[in-house]
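G.,

No rush on this.
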Amino acid sequence: MVAPLDRKLWRDLKATRTQALAIAMVVAVGVLLLVMMDGLVNSLEQTKATYYERYRLADVFAPAKRAPKRLLERIANLEGVAAVEGRVVGGALIDLPGQAVPVRAQAVSLPDYREPRLNAIYLSDGRHLDPRRRDEVLLLEGFAQAHGLRPGDRLTATMNGARRSFAIVGLAQSPEFLYAVAPGELTPDDSRFAVLWMSEENLAAAFDVDGAFNEALIALDRGAREPAVLAAVDRLLRPFGGIGAYTLADQFSNRIVSEEIEGLRLSATNVPPIFMAVAAFLLYIVITRMVQAERTQIGLLKAFGYRSTAIAAHYLKFALVIAIGGALLGCLLGLLSGQALARTYQTYFKFPFLEFQVDPAAFAIGIATSVAAACTGGMLVLRRIFLLAPAVAMRPPAPASYARSARLFGRLRRFLDQPSRMVLRQLLRQPGRAFAAILGIAVGMGLCAATLGVLAGFDEAVALNFSVVDRSDATVTLIEPLSDRTVFELQRVPGIVKVEPFRAVSVILRNGRKSHRGGINGLVPEPQLGRALTTELDPLYLRDEGIVLAASLARKLDVAAGARLSVEVREGRRPVLDLPVIAIADTLIGAPAYMSLRGLNQALREPGRISGAYLRVDSQQAQTTYETLKGMPAVAGVTLRSEAQASLQRMMDEGSGGMRFVMALVAAIITFGIVFNSARIAFAERAQDLASLRVLGFTRAEAAYVLLGELALMILLALPLGALTGMLLADGLAAGFSSDLYSVPARIDAGAVGTASLAVLGAALLSGWLVKRDIDQLDLVSAMKSRD
């Protein structure tokens, strides 16, 4: 048998179904994000760990120029080393029919007659290599799919200056290339970067390292001290051109995947509480209204013997039903959206398998958080029930006193008509509640404006980088640092209008305990094509005596202009430099460090060396230009600015960058939920007053004006507060979406504020229309009756 209070519960839910649904949707979105992001974090972490373990990804990578194979035994005997594998790696250029620009590739050796101990591959199509055939390769699956290549096809590649033809016998993937990007670039593009796996003997012959290796892969024992192993390996490889061992944490592909997972984890931690706080606020308002409206009923229930705890439990159940219903809906939607987004991540990161798995604890946390929000919103009100004595509760509440506003309205009487004075009087009567509603609307608008600012910031980051920072048409990378006479050779290529050389050097920057593994870009003193800019986007003049850091890098190292950095060069003679920081540059892509080209070469004691050049190309002769560059043996790769820009924009629109679109939807839901509930609550509270006005002769429009005018005034007051809130939230959102790859500027301009304001006004108009419909359908007789 259903208890009387439970029957009342269902009647209350039916009466407030639209408000209950709006609040449940806010809860559902919060739980959806929690479940979806938790599932993505778990899926990516577990898949990454399984993939790394199953295919034995190395813990340490130790590149060298040319080291004898006998050295591998000495590395294996080092304390903390569990396994070691030597291999040959090198750069290549792939020549595709009908494509003028050569495609950069990395050639990687595989043992001839056994499985590799470390960094094994996943063969997705075709067969393994036959070491007796010198022309066989395995091709990275993503590149093959981008160009429609299959096992049995052939391709032409240039390795170490020699042009060779290869037969593709299989397609492969590797945990080493989850984030497949050409060396020196930041953004992946399946069509512009390939990996070729070849027989070790054949690849060693191609790069003249027979009987040797140029990279050692190392697996560590549990509990091994990484710094000690790295130092020992560096000592062994230094005579053979070692350029510095590094751990898996610094391996580029792994670092990008790990940063993406960490960004999702932060979002899963920080975003859902916003929704739960909004839901708690809305439930607080709704239950407050119900307790006030049902004051007489509460008194009657107490008079008939119901205890305060039973009555309080009734209203708490009302909140719990809404919260739990929204949480269950959010769990279901989180599963569906997570599975859809997991497929996107499998394309973005080259996992051969990725199964979306949610930790059951995420469901429990989502439901528990929803219950906690409901209890928080309800418990703040339910204490009033315990304080109501039956005799007091059964009496009608004392009429509101407007004595305080009499003097104010006496002055405004000549300017305001009666309905307008009623609107202002109601706001002044309950300023706390009005301020809470204004604050809620402002937060929703602020989140919307901040999200729009981040959206604009993403696009601005791309536009500024490829129009203000990088003004070249193409970038040429050389196979190794060469004489600056190469500049004259490039200038003689038909179609090249301007050549601006640069030098890129691999380094570790240290400031005390803080360090960063990256590179220094040596530029001409007053660069025109690849520039370093101030925070005001003015070009920096690069002096010979110091280093210029990107703003994001300066924050990471905790240094300012005037400080000194220790710079460990990881190539050539590997000197350790002590350099002053002479300026901070405003970079949007990556975290570079700059020096003047001459100053960098002087510090390295290698005058007149360059490792590449920025080019301005005549568009009428571009085809001829790129064909000529493709045939130059010293050229390691050519990157077109237009292709790099398209690749970066695509990357920003996927993965964590795509989450900004989710945040825009989130802001819209919060804003509408708050505005609609404010309107519905005001209508429910004042239905009897509105009926009285109708009986006294007010038209439907005038009665609606009294109610909706109050909502309109609160929204107008919330708009400037929302703009301020958006400015405060924008920096946090921009910092959350920024990474080592790009810095997202927070831009809250008039357009973002205006669009957010229109979103709030749109939500208000829709809410007002729904409430106006209820006002027009108001039963005057029923509304005038006292609920007892």
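When you get to it, here's the other one too:
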Amino acid sequence: MAFSMRGSTGLEGLDQVIDGLRIGDNVVWQVDRVEDYADFVAPFVQHATGEGKRVVYIRFARHDPLIPDDGTAAVYTLDATGGFESFSAEVNAIATREGQDVFYVFDFLSDLLSAWATDLMIGNFFMVTCPYLFQQNTIAYFGLLRSSHSFKTVARIRETTQVLLDLYSTGGAVYVHPLKVRGRHSATMFLPHKREGDRFVPVTSSGDATRLLTYISGREREQAKRNLDYWDRLFLDVEDLLARDGQEREKEEMLDRLCRIMVGRDTRILDLAKRNFTLEDLLHIKARLLGTGYLGGKSVGMLIARKILTRAMGDDGWAHLEPHDSFYVGSDLFYTYLIENGWWQLHTRQKTKEGYFEVAGTLRTLMREGSFPEEIEEQFWQLIEYFGQSPIIVRSSSLLEDAFGNAFAGKYESVFCVNQGTPEERYRAFRDAVRRVFASTMNEDALAYRVQRALDQQDEQMALLVQRVSGSHRKSYFFPDLAGVGLSRNTFVWKEGMDPEAGMVRLVLGLGTRAVNRVENDYPRVVALDAPLDRPLAGLGDIRRYSQHYVDLLNIGTNSLETVSLGEMVKAEAGISLDLFAVRDTEAAEYLKERGLKEGAPWILTFEALLSETSFPSVMQGILKRLEAAYGYPVDVEFTVNFGGQETEDFQINVVQCRPLQTWGEGRKVEIETDIPDDRILFASQGNFMGSSIVQPIRLIIYVEPEGYHKLSNSERYEIARIIGRLNRQIGAGRDSLPTLLMGPGRWGTTTPSLGIPVGFSEINNVSVLVEIEHETGSLTPELSFGTHFFQDLVETSIFYAAIFPRRKNAVFNPDWMAPLENRLASLAPGSERYEAILKVYEVSEGGLSLMADIISQKLLCFNPSKTDQQSGRTVSARV
């Protein structure tokens, strides 16, 4: 950058005052009226075009155009309502395309308040745009409406810009007062200058200067709210509206306005919010909001659900709702965090195709260590002081999360803070939790999810929901009695005659982590609410094996999240209602007795008494159906249950999350043949699948051979998972033309290789059918993951899931069907030849393999539909 390179304001007298403009200058004009700004834009543009310079006009405001659309300047008309990131990215892209030595005029920055509702984001926009224009050797004009922005916003702009000018029009005279002119000064430069024709005369007389500046500062003092962010001033207007009991139309318009700046852009969620929230509700929420901006999907869903249910408190059973005192961190902090720490350009690179995954890793690491603005840190302290030593959880609540069509289930982190220790230790733990959740926006699974849902270029700001952990102290432990997931529509019924509209829950003892995740070595209780005592695994074998054996809880003594066996919990006498939740394991007791052991009879968590002797199933069903009716759509909720006394009906349900249930397909009837020879069947089952009725052709099979996989070391199992990820990426956009069946032993997506195949969801997200096969070792066992985040991923990605238990009645698995096919592994994944005996990749001729499932009869069949053997038919033309 050569500072000798000159530009001009187009006014010779003003150039003399500030020693002209320099290439690289960003010039901010603080004015009272658009017309005053326009009067100084015109000579700047005229001079620039006269010198042969290209002028670009960035048009986004509602005020009259500053430059006529007559070819004088290149005009770019932008829409700021799409969000800060997309708007900033558009400006950046324009500046990149236009190149260097271009002159810019921007509309009034103040008009962005109508789109973003906060001064903070205007300051953020200037902080990312000004340096980039400086690097491009430009000169740019910006307008700012005086007394419309907080002192902090003006201070951030003053710090970033090269030139800051105050423009006053009073008593028929025009004054320009330079406040900042980087790189030059003179004896009178920073005095007010009165315009007299083409001249700008400094106001040097003490009397004249005193009268002028006293008048100006006195007028500004009348703006008593100026030190507040526009956001805060807006809510003061709401309080005033309610205090004077404004007209209903005024209140409706204000409610609509607040919902648009707090709730989000999803029209269906916005409609729900406006139908359920009042202005008083939003004022109460704002009082518990740290920072500014959107609440995010998880917070909004929880608040809407609780408002719907609170209205029903007068009905029998609705008093079972537990209150909450959550806090919210507004979405604007996320971008501020990136900008204040100097990572915005890195973030911009990450949004490109080339840097999308590569830069994300660097950014994720940096985001775990960043700093926050002082005023935000003070708010963090107030939150910590409010909760004291009560455990809290910091949960993701991004803009796109928990919307209609996009759940983002499990893609971002939630962090428990056991919240023990000194105030400083508790503060640091909370701050680190916020960083972790922010950094999780760069997780590979989250990035892959956004790409697959065509969301990768949309604004995805991360807001936060901070909740008091539901539960109670039990000696050195803290946990709720029960937790789980509830679905208002059980479209995956496992028994003929069950009503899908009755809903279902997935229930665990302790924290809900074991209900929303696929848990190793454990099986939560799945409950159909119209038949709560029926089991989806009925007839599958030992009830002991398919129950919950471990409990997730918070250990107050060690200040950590821990997993404890049920046996340890019983010995610790931690206040579990065993008679309500569990039954004695009489077989195990007899076994111990025969061997002379004196240990008490172990317990099995079945929840039989809870489901048969209390109103919990009907109350839970009522909650789900009430929410479904209000949403006009099936819902998916996360909840906790706490018993407050000796009475079994003395329980409270805390709805901690609610979102539209992601579903696909219809419960239509599919006719499945019953007399197909065994040699034409690859697999078949009665039940044990998730997904609607389906007829799906298969063109590619990826198969992990169970016995060979069982013999591998853990490191080799991870290698197998990575190779599958490579194959999955090759399928990519060809998923529809090359529908793929992925089969393997145990659980897909496990974190424990001894239990299955440790792939990330981004490594299997392009397949059409996913099959888990039970292997006789006993540890490689599928899990029917109704209601989990894994389940949500499968449904949202339209992946059909099936579990095959070859040793059970009405189940068939015939791997010999694939024997004549050629293993394509080596050609599709070079370097993986050593695993050819374990990992098989087969192409199937068109019409050679089809999967059929009927949700009504619960029949599943994958077979060669032709009576002639098509395995050796014509070559498949589609490539992986």
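The first strand starts at residue 6 and ends at 7. The first helix runs from residue 12 to 18.

Enjoy the weekend,
O.
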